[in-house]
Amino acid sequence: MGKKDKGDREKKSKKRFYEEEDDEEEAVGSESQEAIPAAAGKQVDESSTKLDEYGAKDYRAQMLLKNDHSSRPLWVAPDGHIFLEAFSPVYKYAQDFLVAIAEPVCRPNHIHEYKLTAYSLYAAVSVGLQTSDIVEYLQKLSKTSVPDGIVDFCKTM
């Protein structure tokens, strides 16, 4: 009977040890939430987007094609989505830029989709990119005019 009692005590102590570790992890998680800036939760404004008769987003009124649109690889939507043509001659340069400023959403063979978020812009700034440079490169690479909401979103970071 003595050995059985001793084994029970060891199991209890191990359980208590694991419970203490869980408490420490929860405390660390709450501290990390406090370190996140309030602007990091900011989202791109999507309220001005109209839908067509099929339920698709219609950006034609907000985004006008540039005259030399065939030589540019990006579509920048007002909701923060950026579409990259993978068959463009400047695809590699545009992809390197987008990887630095946006999060990949979907990357099939011909069109890649990225999402511009507050976190991705913070990451871009942390590696040395300036928000004015980000806006300038988006304007150079975009087939359409870059929506004002995206420019404002980038500059507020």
The residue-averaged pLDDT reads 80
**Which regions have little confidence, pLDDT < 50, spanning 5+ residues?**
27-33
Distance between the termini: 68 Å
Radius of gyration: 24 Å
- Please work out how many helical segments DSSP would assign: 5
Order of helices and strands: HEEEEHEEHHH
**Largest beta-sheet details:** 4 strands, antiparallel
Structural class: alpha+beta
Assign a percent range to the helix content: 40-55%
Taken as a percent bin, the fraction of beta residues is 5-15%
Q: Tally of extended strands?
A: 6
Spatial arrangement of strands, main beta sheet: 3-4-6-5
Rough outline: globular
InterPro entries: ATP-dep_DNA_Helicase, XPB/Ssl2_N
GO biological process, one term: transcription initiation at RNA polymerase II promoter
Keywords: ATP-binding, Helicase, Hydrolase, Nucleotide-binding
Pfam family, one: Helicase_C_3
Give a written overview of the molecule.
The chain is an alpha+beta fold. Helix content is 46%, strand content 13%. It has five helices and six strands, in the order H-E-E-E-E-H-E-E-H-H-H. The strands form two sheets. Strands 3-4-6-5 form a four-stranded antiparallel β-sheet, covered by helices on one side. A two-stranded antiparallel ribbon has the order 1-2. Helix 4 packs antiparallel against helix 5 (148-155). Keywords: ATP-binding, Helicase, Hydrolase, Nucleotide-binding. Residues 1-49 are annotated as: Disordered.
